């Protein structure tokens, strides 16, 4: 992998049982997220790294944000820590556009904000 290149995967290639790590902030997560995703906001990521590392043991981590910028940074960090991670190209906007399901924790219709 050339220096500075982050591995990316198309949303269609993210397995339904894959470890999807959503690094968006709380308000973005609340508006709509992928069912089964793990939510660790980028702003709290370093403090919660141990939790992520434990979940990621022997698994590929699919990192997602709104469009792919924040998740690329987190993917780079995870790779630097020896964790098999890949950035989800296009983020949650691409996820929704591809027709992948979104859920909320409340009653409002799920959406990407």
Structure description:
The mean pLDDT is 94. This protein has helices spanning 26-31, 49-56, 69-80, 91-97, and strands at 8-9, 19-22, 38-39, 61-64, 85-88. The protein has one domain (8-97): 3-Layer(aba) Sandwich (Oxidized Rhodanese, domain 1), CATH 3.40.250.10. It has 113 residues and is α/β, with parallel strands linked by helices. It has a five-stranded parallel sheet.
Concise account of the structure shown:
The protein is an alpha/beta fold. The protein has helices at residues 26-31, 49-56, 69-80, 91-97; strands at residues 8-9, 19-22, 38-39, 61-64, 85-88.
Flag low-confidence runs. Answer: none
Number of strands: 5
The level-1 CATH class: Alpha Beta
Looking at CATH, which topology would you report? Answer: Oxidized Rhodanese, domain 1
What is the name of the CATH superfamily? Answer: Rhodanese-like domain
Q: Major sheet: size, sense and barrel closure?
A: 5 strands, parallel
The SS-based structural class is: alpha/beta
Mean pLDDT: 94
Kindly report the spatial arrangement of strands forming the biggest sheet: 1-5-4-2-3
- Beta-strand percentage range: 5-15%
Assign a percent range to the helix content.
25-40%
Give the number of helices: 4
Distance between the termini: 32 Å
Rg estimate, integer Å: 13 Å
So, CATH architecture?
3-Layer(aba) Sandwich
The string of secondary-structure elements, in order, is EEHEHEHEH
């Amino acid at each position: 992998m050339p220096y500075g290149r982050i591995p990316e995967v198309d949303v269609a290639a993210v397995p339904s049982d894959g470890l999807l790590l959503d690094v968006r902030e709380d308000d973005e997560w609340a508006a709509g997220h992928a069912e089964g995703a793990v939510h660790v906001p980028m702003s709290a990521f370093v403090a919660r790294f141990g939790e992520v590392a434990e979940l990621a043991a022997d698994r590929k981590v699919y990192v997602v944000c709104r469009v792919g910028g924040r998740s690329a940074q987190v993917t780079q960090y995870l790779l630097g820590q020896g964790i098999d991670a890949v950035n989800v190209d296009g983020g949650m906007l691409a996820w929704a556009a591809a027709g992948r399901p979104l859920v909320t924790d409340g009653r409002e219709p799920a959406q990407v904000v």
